[in-house]
Amino acid sequence: MCGNEPASCRYGRDSVTNGGLVSSGGRSTEGDTGPLTGFTIGITAARRADEFAALLERRGAVIERTPAIQIIPLADDTELRAATEKVVAHPPEIVVATTGIGFRGWMEAAEDWGMAEALVEALGRSRVLARGPKAKGAIRAGGLREEWSPPNESSSEVLEHLLAEGVDGVRVGVQLHGATTEWEPLPDFCEVLREAGAEVLPIPVYRWLPPRDTTELDQMISQIINFDIDAVSFTSAPAVASMLGRAQDTGRLDALLESLRTDVAAMCVGPVTAGPLVALKVPTSRPGRFRLGALARHIAEEMPRRVPTMRVAGHDMSIRSRAVMVDGELRPLSPAGLTLLKALAQRPGRVVSRQALLAQLPGGGEDTHAVETAMARLRAGLGDSRMIQTVVKRGYRLSIDLEYEEGENT
Asked: For residues 362 and 94, what is the distance between their CA atoms, to the nearest angstrom?
């Protein structure tokens, strides 16, 4: 059926939904209207998660929230203090500021340590490069002035700029995003500089660690693998790295990547955040501007385009991870009913046997009466029993309209 349609037109092979239209925060979106009505979106942000959730819920989304990282308070970070002391004692020729919040936090931590004045004086002797406008604003707020900033807020542009002018023998301080992992983009940045002959001083402002309790992160990984959410959003590369690392530690990395490459959309705030996923050949989507509000708008515009609308018995129907829309109306279905509907939608217009449908239901078993019971409830939930046709002695089929079938075959 799908042809070149987005991967999300494959309706969760072997998926089992947990049902319900209630966000993890307890707010139901049933009855809300908006471009994200019926969609379930995962949020991995550790910062501004409430604000981001509100932006998506306002557009009708159901939210699953799981901070993928914990951020170490800067004033308590011994690694940052050690790096700051090195900068003060021997200022690097070049310092690269990658984020505004990180640079401001560095200044605030130095203030707590009684080192702010010495740090500003040291950086005043360095050539300071800003990755983007937020980093530039933080530099100026600290009483400093950046020498250069790339037009597209890209770390790769900063790297190209440095390599073009030559860094052999040059001491370069680089503000990192967090802990060093194989999926963290900036360690690669540092390694390229080292290979070009630079002496690199990593500055780990707002260092991150995986969450102390990984229960919720494990649950979100399971939801992605089981196609129980429609999209997962990332607002920082460390959040991506943390999820990938946890999936690897629990032996589920391949399954996670398969889901992200097919049915579950990876929505990233910008190219740096998307970097670890792109390196693993996971398709990502991001807004033109690297801002939280822009990401919320992008998700609201993109998700409806990813879900095909089928014409079924005279109705427009589209299936989400936990819900179905019929003629623009959200229809409540039981987990078993939605599972059966997804199984039928994998073969639209074709007969699916009772045994095949039984294998999709939680618990399986041998009694096809469970299929008949769930099917009756499904038909009632859809609001028109004609949308699913019983084929005597064979099974059931989704009543795809002829013109839809012809369109799919062209």
From this structure: 59
